Each structure stands twice: as structure tokens, then as C-alpha cells.
DNA sequence: CCGGGGTATT
DNA sequence: AATACCC
């Protein structure tokens, strides 16, 4: 191959747009409270201002600043509580839908940070001047990019990315416009040939702006960010490690040989950082699928009473089951999170978690699509007793509960979906000789079987009642599943694979977990045995909190269908 | 009580 | 189950 051909080889085949909503929570709150639009506004979670609008930022208010500090900087700061993320989650979903009008290749970080691989969209515009599936019009005549450009742009890269990126800037503008027209939300965007550059360059001009970077300016952009901690993926720990080795800036990173770096931070991270320092990032846009966990947390000064734990967990569970119903899938595992007060030290207190299988999907699929909150709470309390020794005083500062595994909901043949989910989406591989490499497309069937770790032999202390009545031993025959929660059984890869391709996915695996003496009837009523095992005040709590569990009427079911739209 | 969420890796 | 990272 001669040199002319060599120059023509595509080196920057992909085109990536990064979209970040401007001061997301604050914008949502301004929409909800229009009278706050023209005032400095902070969104408060407990004692911190998690974000603020741009008016407030003029006072020097930063993300995650303490309320005290923020009010010192701006005494007239308006504050709205943002501890309940419902509205943000709602807007987040709407924004994602708009992004999906352009491409399914959207990867999200959090609620408002999005990467789009628009390579194929751009390609269609280059080939035919439009995209038949995308009825937006883009002015192909104008050869200038929309928005700002970082660095010089005189010299065009021979790979052709120059025009691709310019087209992408017009797509980004269209995306932002649609989001604004539909939702009155403003975003900022970065356009580049990889995720790293798109994200970093977008930070340069905010809010409600967009910035493009051509590959020839990549190294320059990385030089300007200085601190290594600004590189996505370099958090507190890595920063400390690097700094203790006198590596503070991107330039330090460049000067450090890979061999030296890898001894300090491991080969994987070392290679990534050496690449990133040059503006190289081969990671693909991995379309974000369904969430792998749905959880809620509540932090507080101190909780030391079991009854209060119970009522807080009850409140969390009630909200959590609503979220699970919106999701549509069926949770099969529950996780409890606890943070204990660390009073010997200023340290923040570590979290402890306990997880268990959800008995036979305590859930809706049975005719009454309604969660049995009493059993949910009893299960959560079981987990609680597994993490906190209540025979001694305790002092909690946080409780959280989450669903962590899901099954697709019944109906059709969902078998194919879980199998497909494992497959890497094919994207952006236009030329195998690209500088930034080709992603492995791993289609290997996951037949390899996990070495089965020994089954929960260490779990023998499970028969303590919910709240132990004094003088009672545990001899009572507990045939309820709640009395035998065991750690989540591990599925082998083979099992995952098999259950994923089963035509009618059944609960065989779950069935195996249940003891023979515990027929899992999905009674819509509170299990009397369970209820009786509870202390009287808790019994009252349970029945007061969820009156519907005592006698579900078809009306109750209806409202869930309506809520679900 | 640095919020209240998430993900991936070990 | 914990850790590290992200928003
Ligand atoms: N440590 C953090 C960081 C962010 N957020 C929330 C609040 C933000 O509104 C939202 C988005 O985070 P961003 O980092 O994108 O920040 P903003 O969108 O608020 O501001 P900017 O305009 O600088 O992007 O996520 C959070 O809860 N905790």
C-alpha cells in the first residue's frame, strides 16, 4: 500500500456527541416554581446544596457545598428540597426519549449525562444529504460548524472526520433544540471523535452552548485540563495514588513511562490514562439498558430504635414498590443498606449491605398485581437484623433498600432479550485500520460454568424472630419463607444462559431455593403467622400503613393500571 | 449525617 | 459484600 492510500485510511471513524443538561435539578425546580426563575436557587439535600442555577453560581456557590456556606455567599439564596428524585427521574426519562429519536446508541451516566454515537446518522447525511428515518433538516450547504470550536480548525484531517464532526454539530444543535422545544430544558453539548473528547470539550462553554473539537486539537485540550483528576474515571483514590507519586498534571502523566505507571496503579488503569493523556479513548458508547438496581435511601442524624427503623423502611419500601411497578419488571432480590454512626472518628462511617432473594417474587404477577408490603417489610427487617446486632445499642445514620435483580414480566417470549442483551452492539466500526482500534465483538456463548462457590454454610443464625420476645425460644415451627432467608444463590453462567433462552421462563431456580416446607402461596393478605410474630406496636404499624393488604378490592388493582398508563 | 441515586470491578 | 467511580 502506498503512502497516498495510507493517508486516506480513516483514523477517527466515530462521531460522538455528549449532551449534559445544564444544572439539571435546578432547571427542573425552576420549571416547577417559575417564580424562582429569576432568583439564585439552590437544590438542597439534607445539609448540602447539591446543585444551583447559574444565577446562584455567580455568588461562588459550588456543587455539593454545605447549606451554611452557600447562605454565607448568598444570603438571599432560595432553596428547594431535592431529596426526592421523582421529578428529576421523570424529566430524565423524557430527555432520553428525545435522544432516542436520533439513535438508540445512547449511553447515560446518571440522570443527565448522555453519550450518543451518531456515526451512522452522519454517514447517511454524507451519502444522501438526509436521513430517511430522521426527518430533521440539516443545512448541508453551510460548511461551518454550529457553536464553538476548540482550537484551530484550518487544517483538515485527511480521514474526513472534519466534515463529519461539522455535521454532528448541526445534529447536536437540533437535539438541543428539540429538548428545549418539548421540555423547556437547556443542555450543553460536546462534539468529538471519542467519548473523552466530547465530554471534556463540552465543559468549555456552558450553559446552553455547544463546543466541537477536531482531532488535531485533542492533545491540546488534554493539556489545558491540567489536573489528572479531571479525567473521567480518575477519582479520589487514583488521584491520591498518582499525587503521592508526583503525578499531578496530564503532562506529568505523559512523562511517566507506562512501565513505571503500571507498577503504581495497575496495568489497566495505566494504559487507559496513557491513552487519555493523548486524547485517545477507544471505549464504545454502550447503550444503557434497563437499570440493574432500583433503590432508595434516607439519611438522618440518628436512629436507634427498632420501631423507627421499621417505620422508615416501611416508607422506603412503599415508594420502592411504586418505582418497581413503573419499571414493569419483577424484582427477585432485595438489598438493605445501613450506615452506622462512627463516633470514635470523624470518618464518615462505612456502609454495610445485606442481600437476599425475594421469595418467589413476592409480587404482582399473580392476579392481584400488588405488592405485599407486610411481607416486604418483614423481609427487610430480617436483613436488618442480619446487619445490626440489636442486643446492643445502635446508632444509624442511613437506611436504604433496593431491588437488585429482575425478571422480565411474563407475557411473550422474552427469552431472546436477555440473550441479546449480552451482545455488544455493533457500532461505528467503519474501518479496521483506525487508530483507535476496533472493539472486540465478543459473541462467545456464555457456556462457561462458574465454579460454584460453596453454598451458604455460614448462615445458620437465621431463626431469630423479627423482634425477639423475651423468654421465647425459636422452636416454633416457622414455615414462612421469611424465617429462612439465605444469601442469594449464585447462578452459574450456564444457568443464566439457560434461563435466558427458556421459551417460557419459569421460576425453577427460585423454586429450588425454597425449602420443601414452605409452600409459597402468594396470599394477598397478611400472613397471620407473620403478623402474630411481630410485636404489638409493629403489628399496628403494619396494618395501619397498608390497610389495603388486608382486603384488596379490584378497585385497588385498577388504580395501578391507570397509574401505569 | 457531604444527597440520593446509579454502574462496574474485585 | 465491599470498593471505586460517576452524576
Ligand atoms: N455529586 C453529585 C453530582 C450531581 N448530582 C446531581 C445534581 C445535578 O443537577 C445532576 C447533574 O449533575 P451535573 O454534574 O451534570 O451538574 P449540573 O447539571 O447540576 O450542573 P452543570 O450545569 O455544571 O452540568 O446530578 C448529584 O446529586 N450529586
UniProtKB/TrEMBL annotation:
Keyword Acetylation belongs to the record: no
InterPro entries the record matches: DNA/RNA_pol_sf, DNA_pol_Y-fam_lit_finger_sf, DNA_pol_Y-fam_little_finger, IMS_HHH_1, Rev_trsase/Diguanyl_cyclase, UmuC
Chain intervals with Polar residues compositional bias: 445-475
GO biological process: DNA repair; translesion synthesis
UniProt-listed Pfam families: IMS, IMS_C, IMS_HHH_1
Lineage top rank: taxon: Eukaryota
GO molecular function: damaged DNA binding; DNA-directed DNA polymerase activity
Ranges for region Disordered: 441-475
Keyword Transferase: no
Positions of the UmuC domain: 16-235
The entry's keywords: DNA synthesis
Family of the protein in this entry: Belongs to the DNA polymerase type-Y family.
Name of protein: UmuC domain-containing protein
Classification of source organism: Eukaryota, Metazoa, Ecdysozoa, Arthropoda, Hexapoda
Amino acid at each position: 500500500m502506498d503512502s497516498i492510500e495510507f493517508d486516506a485510511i480513516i483514523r477517527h471513524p466515530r462521531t460522538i456527541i455528549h449532551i449534559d443538561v445544564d444544572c439539571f435539578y435546578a432547571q427542573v425546580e425552576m420549571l416547577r416554581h417559575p417564580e424562582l426563575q429569576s432568583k439564585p436557587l439552590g437544590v438542597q439535600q439534607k445539609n448540602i446544596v447539591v446543585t444551583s442555577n447559574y444565577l446562584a453560581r455567580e455568588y461562588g456557590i459550588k456543587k455539593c457545598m454545605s447549606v451554611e456556606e452557600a447562605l454565607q455567599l448568598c444570603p438571599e439564596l432560595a432553596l428547594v428540597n431535592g431529596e426526592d428524585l421523582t421529578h428529576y427521574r421523570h424529566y430524565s426519562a423524557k430527555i432520553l426519549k428525545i435522544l432516542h429519536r436520533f439513535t438508540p446508541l445512547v449511553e447515560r451516566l446518571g440522570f443527565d449525562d448522555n453519550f450518543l454515537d451518531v456515526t451512522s446518522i452522519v454517514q447517511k447525511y454524507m451519502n444522501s444529504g438526509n436521513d430517511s428515518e430522521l426527518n430533521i433538516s440539516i443545512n448541508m450547504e453551510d460548511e461551518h460548524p454550529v457553536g464553538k470550536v476548540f482550537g484551530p480548525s484550518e487544517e483538515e484531517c485527511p480521514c474526513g472526520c472534519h466534515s463529519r464532526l461539522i455535521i454532528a454539530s448541526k445534529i447536536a444543535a437540533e437535539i438541543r433544540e428539540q429538548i428545549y422545544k418539548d421540555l423547556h430544558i437547556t443542555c450543553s453539548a460536546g462534539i468529538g471523535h471519542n467519548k473523552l473528547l466530547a465530554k471534556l470539550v463540552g465543559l468549555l462553554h456552558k450553559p446552553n452552548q455547544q463546543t466541537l473539537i477536531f482531532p488535531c486539537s485533542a492533545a491540546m485540550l488534554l493539556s489545558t485540563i491540567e489536573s489528572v483528576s479531571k479525567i473521567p474515571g480518575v477519582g479520589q483514590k487514583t488521584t491520591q495514588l498518582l499525587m503521592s507519586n508526583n503525578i499531578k498534571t496530564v503532562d506529568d502523566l505523559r512523562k511517566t513511562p507506562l512501565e513505571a505507571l503500571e507498577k503504581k496503579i495497575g496495568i489497566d488503569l495505566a494504559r487507559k490514562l496513557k491513552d487519555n493523556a493523548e486524547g485517545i479513548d477507544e471505549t464504545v458508547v454502550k447503550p444503557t439498558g434497563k437499570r440493574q438496581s432500583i433503590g432508595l435511601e434516607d439519611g438522618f442524624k440518628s436512629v436507634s430504635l427498632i420501631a423507627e427503623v421499621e417505620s422508615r423502611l416501611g416508607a422506603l419500601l412503599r415508594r420502592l414498590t411504586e418505582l418497581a411497578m413503573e419499571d414493569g419488571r419483577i424484582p427477585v432480590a432485595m438489598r438493605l443498606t445501613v450506615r452506622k454512626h462512627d463516633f470514635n472518628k470523624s470518618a464518615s462511617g462505612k456502609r454495610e449491605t445485606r442481600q437476599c432473594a425475594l421469595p418467589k417474587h413476592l409480587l404482582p404477577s399473580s392476579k392481584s398485581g400488588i405488592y405485599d408490603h407486610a411481607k416486604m417489610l418483614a423481609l427487610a427487617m430480617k436483613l436488618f437484623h442480619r446487619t445490626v446486632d440489636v442486643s446492643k445499642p445502635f446508632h444509624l445514620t442511613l437506611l436504604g433498600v433496593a431491588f437488585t435483580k429482575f425478571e422480565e414480566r411474563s407475557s411473550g417470549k422474552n427469552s431472546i432479550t436477555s440473550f441479546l442483551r449480552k451482545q455488544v452492539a455493533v457500532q461505528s466500526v467503519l474501518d479496521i485500520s483506525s487508530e483507535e482500534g476496533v472493539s472486540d465483538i465478543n459473541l462467545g456463548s456464555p457456556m462457561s460454568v462458574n465454579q460454584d462457590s460453596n453454598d451458604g454454610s455460614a448462615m445458620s443464625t437465621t431463626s431469630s424472630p423479627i423482634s425477639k420476645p423475651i423468654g421465647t425460644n425459636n422452636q416454633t415451627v416457622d414455615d414462612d419463607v421469611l424465617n429462612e432467608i439465605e444469601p442469594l444463590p449464585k447462578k452459574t453462567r450456564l444457568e443464566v444462559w439457560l434461563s435466558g433462552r427458556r421459551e417460557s421462563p419459569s421460576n425453577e431456580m427460585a423454586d429450588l431455593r425454597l425449602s420443601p416446607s414452605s409452600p409459597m402461596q402468594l396470599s394477598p393478605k397478611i400472613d397471620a403467622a407473620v403478623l402474630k410474630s411481630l410485636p404489638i406496636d409493629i403489628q399496628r404499624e403494619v396494618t395501619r400503613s397498608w390497610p389495603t393488604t388486608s382486603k384488596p378490592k379490584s378497585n385497588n388493582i385498577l388504580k395501578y393500571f391507570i397509574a401505569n398508563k
